[in-house]
Task: inverse folding
């Protein structure tokens, strides 16, 4: 029995007995203009735009057509991402000659702008996130023995660096000047650029996920974990922030829990202002890809965490539950999700009728959720993927 038939039988068994016919299909992404197979690096938040890169340039797809955006002379793109509408594309580019340090560039108005022209020769900047209107860009700066956060704002002509304290004043509530904590990498930014997430690292290796916005919020210990009386240590690391800035996903590790101080554990977590910190069923590595409301989180292995299911689902399980046909595909992995959670992109093996194409990029649109999809997702919660 294939998973679509199985899902339908589960729904019928539940008493709903509604049809789970496939209304949409997983569709292969066209090759790049240079004839190379596309590997989608990012999808815009509204789902209208895909971006890809090769060692010689960057490409943007809109309305089903790829456009070459070129690159900066003497630079090789190593990463590329799109803003929410795809109007702005940003990339980390590496010098071909010396120095080879990475620099951040933004494509806007038909040209590339350098967002880190003032950095030291021996430091590198890596692009992380850009606001929907392209006005704020955040990046990580890497040196010989440090990682630091950087913020750049568009002034009408260039991207100009702004201090983290000025960009996110609430950060000072968690990391006041002169404290032992050292702000490290960025792990997320809201669509409007006014909220960002990082991890604060302590002097002994512990740390905590933290969100900076109108107010600063640090990771709160889940109620299911009780510190022991003799020894207790915990560490949390944020991995993704929802587009509305209200949901955090990450990893929580603890030791010395329980009445006698014994007990260790590690699990992924979901935090929201409404529910606080909730541990997820197991430890899973996630990406920075998450829907705007935090209901869908893309995992590193190509599956997703579904908040509706309260569990981790494989790509096949998630697509089946949402009435998307993938009969011509195997080895499906989800890598991107749109802000509304209704558009997906990823990789898989595609049978075009004459041959099987491995690592073929694809896109899919989920029909507007209805009773069927919600019922199947809920039922799948009790049949989570096995590790």
Result:
């Amino acid at each position: 029995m294939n998973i679509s038939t199985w899902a339908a039988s589960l729904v019928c068994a539940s008493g709903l007995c509604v049809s789970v016919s496939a209304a949409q299909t997983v569709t292969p992404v066209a090759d790049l203009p240079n004839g190379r197979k596309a590997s989608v690096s990012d999808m815009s938040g509204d789902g209208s735009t895909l971006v890809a890169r090769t060692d010689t340039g960057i490409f943007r797809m809109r309305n089903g057509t790829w456009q070459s955006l070129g690159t900066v002379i003497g630079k090789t793109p190593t990463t590329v991402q799109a803003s929410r509408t795809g109007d702005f594309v940003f990339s980390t580019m590496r010098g071909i000659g010396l120095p080879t340090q990475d620099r951040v560039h933004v494509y806007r108005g038909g040209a590339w702008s350098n967002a880190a022209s003032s950095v030291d020769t021996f430091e590198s900047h890596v692009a992380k996130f850009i606001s929907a209107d392209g006005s704020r860009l955040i990046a990580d700066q890497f040196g010989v023995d440090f990682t630091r956060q950087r913020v750049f704002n568009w002034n009408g002509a260039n991207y100009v660096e702004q201090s983290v304290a000025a960009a996110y004043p609430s950060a000072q509530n968690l990391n006041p000047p002169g404290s032992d904590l050292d702000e490290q990498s960025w792990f997320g930014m809201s669509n409007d650029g006014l909220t960002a997430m990082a991890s604060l690292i302590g002097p002994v290796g512990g740390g905590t996920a933290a969100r900076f916005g109108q107010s600063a919020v640090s990771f709160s210990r889940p109620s299911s974990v009780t510190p022991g009386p003799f020894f207790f240590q915990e560490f949390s690391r944020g991995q993704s922030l929802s587009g509305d800035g209200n949901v955090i996903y990450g990893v929580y590790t603890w030791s010395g829990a329980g009445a006698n101080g014994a007990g260790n554990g590690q699990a992924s977590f979901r935090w929201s202002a409404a529910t606080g910190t909730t541990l997820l069923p197991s430890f899973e590595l996630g990406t920075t890809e998450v829907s705007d409301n935090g209901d869908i989180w893309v995992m590193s292995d190509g599956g997703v965490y579904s908040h509706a299911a309260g569990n981790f689902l494989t790509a096949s399980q998630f697509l089946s539950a949402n009435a998307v046909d993938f009969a011509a595909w195997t080895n499906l992995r989800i890598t991107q999700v749109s802000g509304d959670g209704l558009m997906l992109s990823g990789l898989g093996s595609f049978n075009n009728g004459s041959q099987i194409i491995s690592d073929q990029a694809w896109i899919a649109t989920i029909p507007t959720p209805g009773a069927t999809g919600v019922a199947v997702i809920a039922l799948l919660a009790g049949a989570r993927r096995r590790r």
